Amino acid sequence: MFNEVKSLNEECGVFGVWGHPDAARVTYFGLHSLQHRGQEGAGIVTNDAGKLNGHRDLGLLAEVFSDERVLQRLTGDAAIGHVRYATAGNGSVDNIQPFLFKFFDQQIGLAHNGNLTNAKSLRKSLEEAGAIFHSNSDTEILMHLIRRSEETLFMDRVKEALNQVKGGFAYLLLTENAMIAALDPNGFRPLSIGKMVNGAYVVASETCALEVIGAEFIRDVRPGEVVIIDDAGIQIEQYTQEVQPAICSMEFIYFARPDSNIAGVNVHRARKNMGRRLAKEAPIEADMVIGVPNSSLSAASGYAEASGIPYELGLVKNQYIARTFIQPTQELREQGVRMKLSAVRGVVEGKRVILVDDSIVRGTTSRRIVQLLKEAGAKEVHVRIGSPPLRYPCFYGIDIQTRKELIAAKYTEAEICEKIEADSLAFLSEDGLIEAIGLDFDAPYSGLCMAYFNGDYPTPLYDYEENYLASLAE
Amino acid sequence: MFNEVKSLNEECGVFGVWGHPDAARVTYFGLHSLQHRGQEGAGIVTNDAGKLNGHRDLGLLAEVFSDERVLQRLTGDAAIGHVRYATAGNGSVDNIQPFLFKFFDQQIGLAHNGNLTNAKSLRKSLEEAGAIFHSNSDTEILMHLIRRSEETLFMDRVKEALNQVKGGFAYLLLTENAMIAALDPNGFRPLSIGKMVNGAYVVASETCALEVIGAEFIRDVRPGEVVIIDDAGIQIEQYTQEVQPAICSMEFIYFARPDSNIAGVNVHRARKNMGRRLAKEAPIEADMVIGVPNSSLSAASGYAEASGIPYELGLVKNQYIARTFIQPTQELREQGVRMKLSAVRGVVEGKRVILVDDSIVRGTTSRRIVQLLKEAGAKEVHVRIGSPPLRYPCFYGIDIQTRKELIAAKYTEAEICEKIEADSLAFLSEDGLIEAIGLDFDAPYSGLCMAYFNGDYPTPLYDYEENYLASLAE
Amino acid sequence: MFNEVKSLNEECGVFGVWGHPDAARVTYFGLHSLQHRGQEGAGIVTNDAGKLNGHRDLGLLAEVFSDERVLQRLTGDAAIGHVRYATAGNGSVDNIQPFLFKFFDQQIGLAHNGNLTNAKSLRKSLEEAGAIFHSNSDTEILMHLIRRSEETLFMDRVKEALNQVKGGFAYLLLTENAMIAALDPNGFRPLSIGKMVNGAYVVASETCALEVIGAEFIRDVRPGEVVIIDDAGIQIEQYTQEVQPAICSMEFIYFARPDSNIAGVNVHRARKNMGRRLAKEAPIEADMVIGVPNSSLSAASGYAEASGIPYELGLVKNQYIARTFIQPTQELREQGVRMKLSAVRGVVEGKRVILVDDSIVRGTTSRRIVQLLKEAGAKEVHVRIGSPPLRYPCFYGIDIQTRKELIAAKYTEAEICEKIEADSLAFLSEDGLIEAIGLDFDAPYSGLCMAYFNGDYPTPLYDYEENYLASLAE
Amino acid sequence: MFNEVKSLNEECGVFGVWGHPDAARVTYFGLHSLQHRGQEGAGIVTNDAGKLNGHRDLGLLAEVFSDERVLQRLTGDAAIGHVRYATAGNGSVDNIQPFLFKFFDQQIGLAHNGNLTNAKSLRKSLEEAGAIFHSNSDTEILMHLIRRSEETLFMDRVKEALNQVKGGFAYLLLTENAMIAALDPNGFRPLSIGKMVNGAYVVASETCALEVIGAEFIRDVRPGEVVIIDDAGIQIEQYTQEVQPAICSMEFIYFARPDSNIAGVNVHRARKNMGRRLAKEAPIEADMVIGVPNSSLSAASGYAEASGIPYELGLVKNQYIARTFIQPTQELREQGVRMKLSAVRGVVEGKRVILVDDSIVRGTTSRRIVQLLKEAGAKEVHVRIGSPPLRYPCFYGIDIQTRKELIAAKYTEAEICEKIEADSLAFLSEDGLIEAIGLDFDAPYSGLCMAYFNGDYPTPLYDYEENYLASLAE
Fold this sequence. Notes:
4 copies of one chain form a homotetramer. By secondary structure, chain A is α+β, with helices and mostly antiparallel strands. Helix content of chain A is 29%, strand content 24%. In chain A, a hairpin with a 4-residue loop joins strand 7 and strand 8. The two termini of chain A are 33 Å apart. The N terminus of chain A is likely disordered. Chains in contact: A-B, A-D, B-C, C-D. Chains A and B meet through helix 1, helix 2, helix 7, strand 16 and helix 9 of A and helix 1, helix 2, helix 7, strand 16 and helix 9 of B. Chains A, B, C, D: It is an enzyme of class 2 (transferase). Chains A, B, C, D: In the C-terminal section; belongs to the purine/pyrimidine phosphoribosyltransferase family.
């Protein structure tokens, strides 16, 4: 939803429902509210009296299901769904989830949000043992592990498999007689349980998906938990005891919708606190505070409130950008063609502006926005970032896997300020971020993953260890 | 851009450029920033050394020109373009503009924003004289009048025709050797002239289109003016002396982009002033001010600033709505499926909320939003509207042609308050609106059209007189 | 149907029905059997209790109506339809018929097969009088003439208009209360009347369309006739007395489906006779007779029968060619990639082959086929053409408007034989053709138009006179 | 190509090339000529210097590759391709071939024509051992067997796998350094090797694909052979000694293109012989012989030739049928709407007709055609079938897997004659068929599979044994 002018990408959203006569439609609307988590593709698998059916394709959810009849064919009272994020070039429908497996003795649907850190080595050893993969995604691995498990009971096979995969993951499985959700031992990705008026259980990546379908929030899935929902009700078990909460702090800063709550904290409120705290940590005299739409508006209003400087609409985002295929020529670009963001000349002309943004990745977007504002007549542009500098890659589900693209990995704050042509620049401190979010865990960083800021990864990196070390040496 | 949760529709946007080697592409980007003025269809006609070519189709601009090659075929250094608003059911490509006419002696492209009040009678008398129309739109009429004029010089024919059409109109014509723009004698619809770095002239419905292509604002086209742009430069004439400025006040309230200026007034600033004034006219004690995204955010922040009550993000708009074809069933609707707007429970729960909206048309949207907020736990919801009650239809280009759909035409403020289930309701006064916009014309209502509020139409209604009288009697 | 390996194009097919509850569907199936007459676009206009509705688009009929719902929306018990032939580059939906005109006092649908010889001058004088055209097609002209007529009765206006247009035409009009068919004074294009079991009347370009919907053949529309079908029944009038039958002989030779009858003569039978006659006029010793699929198979079997030489399948046509967008590279072309026709090596290898084709236009296709056969091992290839040499352009509805593309306009039979690399070449004589078809009219050439063979045009050429003279001088 | 009015479906076509710079394009054209073997989907996998890439989708070849750029991305000098036949309802892209597998140590493309008789049991035992399948097709099985083989050398693994699969198969594999073709021990499906001018080797399901790209025929792949083509040249090995030629006789009768040769016999010639022989076995007095287009035209001309009765075009096939989605209503159907075949009234009216068809499956098509002819006025219709009665299912690649649908399994010739409303009916004898084809093998039925005629299956039926026995008892 909020990620279009930035190069940060989330790794998908999942949604499932058990016990609703119109399960596919409920899933459709749940996924619709999670569309900001992935725009490359979407799919739904339903369970109709033990028979599983699915549909998936490339494109936005509304494109994949543009034909009402497709949804109508997905009968059944249980369903899981998935939205997948956009990567360049790798757009094959083979990678779109949920996957649907039909065995001689069993049918299983599988959806996954996250990134495994031992995927490569697991895949290699599985292939050496004769396994055949049909996609590039990590997701298939869990299914191979389950099917090859020596355990007798299906849930024991699942638990054994969950203990073999490492990294960040939120899984949803649909079998002939149950829906199963599982979260990694650190709880990197959010996953919540809700209940509909008719008694149906839902599981979703964000609570905004519960709100949209009128489901009551029950509780979050916690690190290391596996949830089994079937006609007998809901059962929650711990598949491992070795847990350590480390919720992705970027969910609060940037990814999640402001109306979602994660671990009991409202995302808008967290962002507003980041802005308030930032106003205290990095005050500056100015005529107005403006935010980069849409993800930074909460932080900007917090900054304005705490500083007493008026909050203004200095940047306008064109909402019709997602599907603009025509690009300006180089000449037109120089003449100023800008399609996504416009500065509001009538507001910023002749003014000293505090520009609040949630984060800086490569710095190119920031520089463009500062230029926009200056060209529209802003006298000064003071950039305030609602999070600490991004310095390290993420291996748990955010699409930053090298330091090369991170401006703060290579340059000091002063150098960045110069590069983005701002009049001043300040980042929120790590402590400031932790306090602004205000989680209540007894764990390092209050239960947040802060690794992109400080390199302190809460788990071994397995197959990525080498990448990471190479990355440090760059 | 801002019209998706409301039932008010604008009647199109126009853009033209003369003197740029990549005229079609410039027009594409200009239209892109005007997409909020019409989403039903789009088109571009170019002039390549006197030969006119065009492409138009149903859909968003980016869909109509999804194939780069289509744009590449539209060679030439002059172009006009059009985006058309969505009406139900009448979706034929025949109505998509610009129209392109190829006569044995002349080629003309024609685009139009507005609504003629004497279209029906003109069309009837033209058909009685043998004319054949190929669309339902009013736009063709001007071409018939021009072609049937007895004048010798083309510009005299155009001026004669302009004096025959009545109502609200902003025309763009492209001929083999000139681009012509014309505005009705009241200037209902905005139309501005700009100049690009390379000397090319542009004409656009809103100044945001000038900004997006880096053009400098020259001046607005004024009521009763016709502008001729050709290789010799720009020439502005008055085709009639009987002018009386009456700019559509709904452009300031709702339609135009906040970064546009109309008659020198920034739209965001005008809206913020409406909010500020509203805070004075209708104060109330509360915990927070929230706006309906996106069109009311400016007014809401103005209200917050003037009242000292904190501005919060209490409603979130899902940006992926335009293309959602799947509808919730009645049962799901009752269970709470909401696709466009979500209330932020974490923000509004237990709070007294001032909800600022720009206008109320039928009241159904307002009621739904109040319900949303209450379901999310808001203790009180006080609705404040940034404009006076809409009581009369518009015949100059907004899609409200009957009083039946206007809740304020039938009910008192108190009754409306009850119907929308708000704890209190107040509208901005007419004087408040006029002062908030603050135009500087020596004309009734300071040069604004206020007819939907007070029935004081600045022109005779011609073919609509009967409708209007019937409407009053309803 | 049979025109894919040749560069001859027909100018459309029309179909109409009055009095069937499922008129659109009947029209769909009627047009389906006329698809060989035009593949560029298709459309249907229906009359539902006086209200006309239509749908038209570029593409094959099955593509234009690929969505069942489109057809379902075209309710009504009368309909007219049209298939349009493919021309290069001019593919705008504006030219796809039937046209649907909605006047304040009347609604009219209009479809047209043919070519007017005075279109250009009519259009110019209409435009000088203020008329506006919206397509490149000749078809609109009739509507302007009708609407501008000073006559009081609609049918008088239609007849007046029919007397003003010249050339080849078969018109179908649908009004609120009648379906009207009209044929030019020479009857260049075929047009037949049928009756369905339920009493509905149908009019179609070819009788194969009557067969396909189970309609009984009533009679052909004759030169200079106008047919009015309404709820009172059918009425046939002569709008002009100056008639002279001159049925397009190419309909028999190439265009029409072999199962159609024209003027009482079965097309397959006519072609078989051409082959028989050819065998007598131009015998040769050989091992087998083969035809170019599909249009020449009848003539080939006639030749075989008359000569006693076995008829063989020596050429196979790939039926999946219409929609092949990928083209071989030059290199592949030289290596022999052929997508449309294959020679059957197992049949022709080492044999003396008589190749029967219906006509030669530019000679390039003939040369390619001879080469194909030789590469497949044919020892000798003797080309026999079932019609006389094409030497003059057609202005009545076939897409040959210049002599430049006609190999027989420039070269002798011997020269053509050499150019197409055949071992011998012979054409059917003009008398042979006339006798093979065997019409029974008291008119020059027994009522056939033979102009492309001998330049003897049955009408003045009007606007084409100049073209024609220039063409002769080339 | 010829299968549209009948319910017999072929199981795909394969094509591969090694050593051509434009391998994907060569494969495209090769597949184009094999399109009659499968219309559900198509795909191509190329090898560019050891890196494999592919594209596959539902639809005709020309639709799957409608965008030239898709083909251009498939770079490389080796390629394999596949066209898949149309089945109802099961249209998932997951089943479209070639499959492309990317292992950590190897990349393999795989295409398959045929049907395995032990697929179900192989799949079950593989799944029990942890294998995961991603499609419904048999094809994946070979890959699992190869990957799970304990052999060291890749070709040994392939051969081991080939010895495990039973039934009818023609495989094409593409690896990083070779193209591999393999045929089952009975050679049910045709597979031929050719060589292009530049030295590239090609392998194709039919020789018509060699002709179309100008390749010289080298030799057929023989039962039990595996062919390895790499940069070192071509190598042919026998992977099993237990071979017994049993070429599918339906390839000669119906499936293959008439310009193809199978085992040295031209298909058109074989069909013509069937007609000739039929004329001797089942003569009848009549006025004309007509064939059902297109597959029976060869046999019909053979019958005509041998009997001395004239061959006529009594049935016309509409070539625009493949993509007609609109269906006639029941009422229209009764009124005679026929979209595929028309009888030529002008030919058959009042005549005694001998109708030659290649085979009878359910009898419904035959009855419809007889009716068509009678309605068009045929006095007598004598049906002559160019093959023996189809009485048993096929398990080797033709889509008849139950006897229920076979009219000849339940009724005598006399009963069938009555059911199809013919005046007389005769089938070709088994000996007649064998002699007409005239293969030169020292094997039962001269090397033909005649099982559908006599139940004499050349192999055990494995997983189908039960089906078959049940089928007999029906």
